[in-house]
C-alpha cells in the first residue's frame, strides 16, 4: 500500500497564501501525490490543485510547481483536469520549455473516451500559443473536426482560428479552412456551424488583407449562393449572436436576380418580429441593402420595417431605445415622410433619460411637415418650461428649426414670441437667436417680432449669443425701433463690462448700421464705439473697429454699401450634415458608426458645420488666379495687416526725405463731449481736423495708433515685378555678387505665429519660398535663430536679387538685407519677398 500523505501541522489558508513557503509546501505535496494510488488520492489532488489555483488568483508565482502539476495530471477526475488545464494554459507562454512537458498528457487526453475531457484537452492544447509546439496541434485539430461529439467539433472549429493566429502557414498547409467550410455546410449541430462561420470569417478577413489573390478567392466563397441559403435556411436554429453573424454575412450577398432577393426576404420575414433588437436591426440591414436598386420595393421595405422599429423604441431599455432611435434618425434623413404619421411615438416620456429625450427632439424636428407641425410644436412648447434646462433649450431650438423648414409659420412665430414672456434667461436667449434667424428668412415678420423684442432690456440677458442676437436686430431694424440708438448707446457706455468678443463685434456692426439709418442720433455712439473698439485688447474687435474707421475715412458711401447692403431673404441655411457623410453612415447601418456619429459634439464634426461664432470665422485659401498682385496688396491692404512695430519701420522707411504735415481723424464722427472725456492717449488719436481728400495715405494707421508719424505724399508705385520661375545661380557666383553689390534695402518684418512654429523644420520655409520662385542657396542656425541666403531672378533679364534673412522664432521677427543688380526693382522685390514670408505657415 502506498504511504499516506502526511498532513501539515500548520496549513496556510487558501485565501491567505504564504508566498514562497506555500509554493514549496505545495510542490512537496504534489510530488507525494504524483504516484499515489490511495483511495482518497483524487480528493487530495483536488484539494491541492484548489490551493494552487487560489495562489494564482492571489498573484503568487506558482510556475515553480509546473513539473509537479503535470505529473499529477493523470487522473480521471474532470474537476481536477479542468484545474490542471487552467494552470497549464496560464503558464505555458511564459515557460515555453516547460510547456513541452504537457504535450504528452494533453494528446493522450484528446483520445480519451469522455468527450468532455477530449474537448477540454483540445482547448487547452490550442491555448498554449507556443510557436514551437505548432506541429503537435494539427493532428488533434484535424481529428477533432471529425469527432462524433458536437462539443469536441465546436472546440476544434475555434481551435483552427487559434492555430491561424499562431502560425498561418501551418493552418493553410493543413487545409483547415476547407475542412471548416465543409463542416459548416454539413454538420447537423447549429453551434458547430456557428463556430465554423466565426472561424472562417476571421481567417478570411486576415487573409484578404494580406493577399489580393486570396481576397479574390475568398470573394468567390462569399458569392456562392449555396453558402448563403444553407445558413439562412437554418437561421432559426442558431443562437442570437450566431443569427447576427449570419445576417451580417447575408448583407454582403450579391443576388443574381430578383427572385433570389425575394427568396431571402421571405426566409427572413419572421426575424423582424424577433425579441432581440440586434437581430431585428441586422435583418433590416439585409432588406435595405438587397433592395437598394429596386426603388418601389425599397419604399415598401421602409413601410414594413416601421412597426418593428417603433416596437423596439418603446419596449426595450433606454440604451436599446437610444440605439434604435439613432438608426431611425438615419432612415428619416433618407425618407422624411416615413414616420410623419407616427410622430406621437417620439414624444418624450417623463422616465426617459436626457440623451433619449434629445434624440427624440431631433426626430420630431426631422419628421415635421405641414400635416403635423401644429401638434409637434404644441408638444415642444410644453418642454420649454422643463426643469431640465438642456432639454428646454433643445426644445426651443427644435421649434425654431421647424419654423425655418416650413412655409406657414404664423402659429410658430406666435409661440416663439410667447417664450419671451416666460422671464427665464436661457429661454429668452435661445428665443432671440431663433427670432434672428427667422427674420433673416422671413423679413415680412419684422414688425411683429420687433414690437415684442423692443420691450426686452439688454440688462436682463446674460448669455452672449442671446445678447448678440438682440444687438443684431437693433442694428438691422433700427429704423423701426424708436429707442434703438439709445439702447445701443447704453451698451457702448458699458463696453468695458462686456467680456464676450462676440457681443462686442456685433455691437460694432450694429452701431455702424444704425448710423447710416439714423445719423444724428447715432453720431456720438459711433465715435465712442470706434474709439473703444480700436483700443480693445481682442485682436478681432480691434481689427474690425479699425477697418470700419478707415472705411469711413475713405468714403462713407462705400462704407454703407459694405456694412449695410441690400439684403435678400435667406432661403436655405447651411446644412449641418453632408449628404456624402449620410450615405457613408448608411452603408455602415447596424454598427457603432451610427450612434457615434449622432452623439459626437457638433463642434467637432469638421468642415460640415456652419460657424455661428463670428470670432471663429476663417478665410479659406485663395485661388491663385484671384490673388491680387503684390504691389496692389502693398498699396491697399498692408496698413491693416502690419503690427505697430512693423508700421513704425515701414513708415520711417517711406517717409525719409519727404515733407511732413499733420493728419487728423474726421471730426464729424467724434463729438466734442467725447473728445473731452477721453484720456490723453485717445485724445491724441482723435483730433479735430478734416481730411481734404477721400484718398488716404498709409499714415492713417499711424495717426490712429497715436504714433505721431507725420504725413508724406504717397510714393509712386514701382513697376510690377515678375520673377523667373527657374533661376540658376551657383554658390561661387552668389558669393562674388554678395561681395560686389551694394546694400539696397535693410528691413525688419514679422512672421505669423504659425510660421514661427513651422520653422521647427527649416526645410518647410525653403520649400515655401521655392513655390514663390525664390530659391535658397544656403541655410543654418540653431533655435531660436536661423539664417538663410535666398536669391531670385527678374523675368526676362539677368538681374538677380540676393537676400540675407535672419529669423528669430522667439520674437517672430525677420531681419532682411537685400542686394540687387537692378536697384530700382529692389523695393518691388522686397514687397514680393515679405508677402511670401508673411504667408508661411498659414496654408
State the end-to-end distance. Answer: 90 Å
Question: What's the CATH class of the domain at 717-838, please?
Answer: Alpha Beta
Helix content, binned percent:
55-70%
Shape from CA axes? extended
CATH architecture of the domain at 717-838: 2-Layer Sandwich
Overall SS class:
mainly alpha
Radius of gyration: 40 Å
**CATH superfamily placement of the domain at 717-838:** TATA-Binding Protein
Reported by name, the CATH topology of the domain at 717-838 is TATA-Binding Protein
Number of H/I helices: 43
Question: Based on DSSP secondary structure assignment, what is the total number of beta strands?
Answer: 5
Low-confidence stretches: 1-18, 601-716
Tell me about the biggest sheet? Answer: 5 strands, antiparallel
Proportion of strand residues: under 5%
Mean residue pLDDT: 77
Give the SSE layout.
Elements: H1 20-34, H2 41-57, H3 66-71, H4 78-91, H5 96-99, H6 103-110, H7 115-127, H8 138-144, H9 150-166, H10 168-173, H11 176-186, H12 190-210, H13 212-223, H14 225-233, H15 240-250, H16 258-268, H17 277-290, H18 295-315, H19 318-334, H20 354-367, H21 373-383, H22 389-405, H23 410-419, H24 425-441, H25 446-453, H26 464-476, H27 484-493, H28 501-517, H29 519-534, H30 539-554, H31 556-563, H32 579-587, H33 593-599, H34 630-636, H35 638-641, H36 644-655, H37 672-677, H38 680-685, H39 699-704, H40 731-740, E1 745-750, H41 753-758, H42 762-770, E2 775-782, E3 785-793, E4 800-808, E5 813-820, H43 826-838
Helix pairs in contact: 1-2, 2-4, 4-7, 6-7, 7-9, 8-9, 9-12, 11-12, 12-13, 15-17, 17-18, 18-19, 19-20, 20-22, 21-22, 22-24, 23-24, 24-26, 26-28, 27-28, 27-29, 28-29, 28-30, 29-30, 30-31
Biased composition (Low complexity): 665-685
Pfam family, one: Adaptin_N
Subcellular location: Endomembrane system
